[in-house]
Amino acid sequence: MAANSGMQLFSSSGDFADFDFGFGFGFAGDCPQEAAFHPPPPSVEVLPSEVSQNVKYTVEPVNLGELTLLKGRVSTHEVFSLSNSDLVPGKYEGGLKLWEGSMDLVNALQSEIQAGHLSFSGKRVLELGCGHGLPAIFACLEGAPTVHLQDFNAEVLQCLTIPNMDANLKKSQAPECRIADRDIRFFGGDWSNVHQILPYVIDNEEDAIGDNGSASGGYDVILMAETVYSVSSLQNLYELVKKCMGCPHGVTYMAGKKHYFGVGGGTRRFLSLVEKDGIMTSSIVAEVADGSSNLREIWRLSFK
């Protein structure tokens, strides 16, 4: 799917409708109040063998500097019986769309590696709100042996994320570059409870620090793009990051818009939670101002 550009939020192929409120999301119904009628989906692990065989999946290239990845295209109507929205609070959280922050994040990760600030070798990686999973796919291609991906909707994982991961790994033709050859796993569920099924979660100090004083629990690198749009979910997202980020050396890379007009979220709103809590420090990695959307940012979080 094409990333958000200008006023067109969706592909013109007929799979999706043009529907824009000017702040980056098309909604069905009356917005946040609808979430009350949709309890969060159960947290489940989705196995690669559970990939959907009933939804048409096609791919097209997306160029990210010197890197070319594949992005999948599936129909929101086929998967969710939706044709005019890329967000229905509590039911569908936009995972079938390739948001521009995902590409911003991959570009920033490339720059961090080139500058010697980041390595995925030997690392446990978690992508939250993954959708297409391009940042997680990039981490795989850069040698991360453990990559876990989470999305609100299990259907997104079955119809898009798993096929997209498989297509990109096959395209790379690198040794041991198959889902079956890595610790690559997929988890569906809401940020308020998905930690209950994630393999590397820090529930107490013993989980965080091993017998020799080194980090043992948690993920080394957490990736998330366009996850901070909803004010109502920011606290759950931050609590999940704290539960999942390895201490003391874990890092989180967050890409998003500075402000999501009309829905109240944004990178700065999320960072205010981080600052108020006082256990992490944040630093800006990159800014993107291309004139086609709100100012976009990539931030790095780490423990103090």
Automatic annotation (TrEMBL):
It is found in: Cytoplasm; Nucleus. Keywords: Cytoplasm, Methyltransferase, Nucleus, S-adenosyl-L-methionine, Transferase. GO terms for biological process: methylation. Belongs to the methyltransferase superfamily. METTL18 family. Its main location: cytoplasm. One of its GO terms (cellular component) is nucleus. This is protein-histidine N-methyltransferase. Its EC number is 2.1.1.85. PANTHER family: HEPATOCELLULAR CARCINOMA-ASSOCIATED ANTIGEN (PTHR14614), HISTIDINE PROTEIN METHYLTRANSFERASE 1 HOMOLOG (PTHR14614:SF39). It comes from Rhodamnia argentea. GO terms for molecular function: protein-L-histidine N-tele-methyltransferase activity. It is an enzyme of class 2 (transferase). It comes from the Eukaryota.
